[in-house]
Amino acid sequence: MMKQSLRHWLATVIATLTVSVCVAADQANVVILATGGTIAGAGADATNSATYQAAKVPVDKLIAGIPQLANVAAVRGEQVFQIASESFTNDHLLTLGKRVAALVKQKDVDGVVITHGTDTLEETAYFLNLVVRTTKPIVVVGSMRPGTAMSADGMLNLFNAVSVAASLDARGKGVLVTMNDEINSGRDVAKMVNIKTDAFRSPWGALGMIVEGRNYWFRLPAKRHTANSEFDIEQIDRLPTVDIVYGYGNVPDTAYRAFAAAGAQAIVHAGTGNGSVSNTVVPVLQELRGKGVHIIRSSHVNAGGFVLRNAEQPDDKYDWLVAHDLNPQKARILAAVALSKTRDSKELQRIFWEY
């Protein structure tokens, strides 16, 4: 009886080990690229949810703080930068984009997660959405509270990001942003408020939700992205200068002239309403376009400015561009990427419609 019991015990152990090995072999391989931000931040006290220092915690500690990650993927981390995201430059975007592109080409990488500060997270997500040609999931994630705060959101956000990046059903959907249990398109999502955990929203709605590690999808991205993009990070070594001028009552032409004089190839006019342009500014924008500077009308309406061509201004007559539904900061990203390929205004407008 004892021998039979021992044999049964050994058989059970062997079977369990075999299943464990099979599960491990089937696990997705996810690389976390850390760039800093609040998700890597620390405050002086647990009550400090809005007052803290960003970019303090290295990626290895972030991973070690969530042992449950091992249940959803084989995870490893790389510290690409350790900065607050308001300090992101075009050079940072290019460095990060090239690293992501290199990783997704590897057979032993199934998905990539980028931890990022929230201030410019939407810009980085959209940039990657434009220039990294892959169907593998790329997920950008941040947090609104540092890990030292009560009700810190970073741990669950990062767990969800890895879970999505490891999922087969996340493939081919472009660059995604996982915050506050939602899955949003990196193209659409924007930071709408700066002190709430539901800060990131899309004017057209989330793509889906994550509940206890499971994805629930509601819609698909309609615009061109990633594997279907005509842009390739491997062919971009620098981004042309594109600047933004904020429109408001009594706005002068000072900033437009200064940016053009400093070498801007395009200026995004962050206008009121439908990208409206003050009658005092129209002449200088016409003048700058005549000198070769592209003028792009966008809107600073927070919840989804939608700029119609030839509605507010005779864009065809002035040879101006409209940003479609892109907010000013995303219009800047697309303009810079597009200008690395063409300066033809008709081609540029086509790109704004398609991406």
Describe the structure.
- With 355 residues, this protein is of the alpha/beta class.
- It has 2 domains: 26-228, Rossmann fold (3-Layer(aba) Sandwich), CATH 3.40.50.1170; 241-354, Rossmann fold (3-Layer(aba) Sandwich).
- It contains 10 helices and 14 strands.
- The protein has helices at 2-26, 59-64, 90-104, 121-131, 154-165, 254-261, 282-290, 315-318, 328-339, 345-354; strands at residues 28-36, 73-83, 111-115, 138-141, 175-179, 182-185, 190-191, 200-201, 208-211, 214-217, 242-246, 266-271, 294-299, 321-322.
- It has an 8-stranded mixed beta sheet with strand order 2-1-3-4-5-6-9-10, with helices on both faces. It has a 4-stranded parallel beta sheet with strand order 11-12-13-14, sandwiched between helices. The chain has a two-stranded antiparallel ribbon with strand order 7-8.
- Helix 4 (121-131) runs parallel beside helix 9 (328-339).
- The protein is globular.
- The relative contact order is 0.10.
- Mean pLDDT is 91; it is low at 1-25.
